[in-house]
Amino acid sequence: MDGKTIFPSLKTARLTLSPIRESDNHAIFTLFSTPAVVEYYDLEAFTELEQADKIIAFFKTRYQDKLGIRWAIRLQESDQLIGTCGFNSWNPQMKNAVIGYDLLPDFWGKGYTTEAIRRIIQAAFSGELACGALNRIQGDTIPGNDASECVLKKVGFKEEGLRRQSGYWKNQFHDLKCFGLLKSEFTHA
User: Fold this and answer.
1) Which of 102, 74, 100 has its CA nearest to residue 89?
2) Distance between CA atoms of 107 and 30, rounded to whole angstroms?
């Protein structure tokens, strides 16, 4: 990715995955101030709109610095932001990345997250993204986050093990289940 690289927008049957805009700050605030959304997240629920502005700027900087990418998950029919997804980190040299995603509870259980992450994985493995084609994508969950594990397994991730107390946030240590997906294992279906 050079400094002139345009942020890639992607489409699925029902969704548009596009840049998170500064004007999305109210939607991002709603998303990250919802306790159920951040229950397993490494951040506290937002209490001020300024926090949404800061995380939008953070996502933009991570992309500009070639450290990660975060898309807004939008309904095609209305352009409503219903969540975000992306690669929290990527390493083009090692050809790997770590995936992350979130969705407003009103949209849970409808296949939107699976649809969105399947599309970004396809883009990452095919070389559609400016970082070049990846070979491995990792996803980490906290034990008990069954919905997230289900999404990862639906798109082909394999559980690789438990990293004991490898995360620390909200004043406590967290075990992390590690899931991995290799390019050779991924199917678009």
Assistant:
1) 100
2) 13
Show the CA angle centred on residue 180, arms to residues 134 and 40, nearest 5°. 115
Question: Distances from the Cα of 168 to the Cαs of 130, 139, 147, 165, 171, in angstroms?
Answer: 32, 17, 21, 7, 7
User: Which residues neighbour 42 within 8 Å (Cβ) at sequence distance 6 or greater?
Assistant: 167, 169, 170
Domain 10-185 has CATH 3.30.720.200: no
Distance CA 36, CA 141 (A): 15
Q: How confident is the prediction along the chain (189 residues), in pLDDT tens digits per residue?
A: 444 568 999 999 999 999 999 999 999 999 999 999 999 888 899 999 999 999 999 999 999 988 999 999 999 999 999 999 999 998 988 999 999 999 999 999 999 999 999 999 999 999 888 777 899 999 999 999 999 999 999 999 999 999 898 888 788 888 899 999 999 999 865
Contact (Cβ atoms closer than 8 angstroms) between residue 98 and residue 137: yes
pTM above 0.90, yes or no: yes
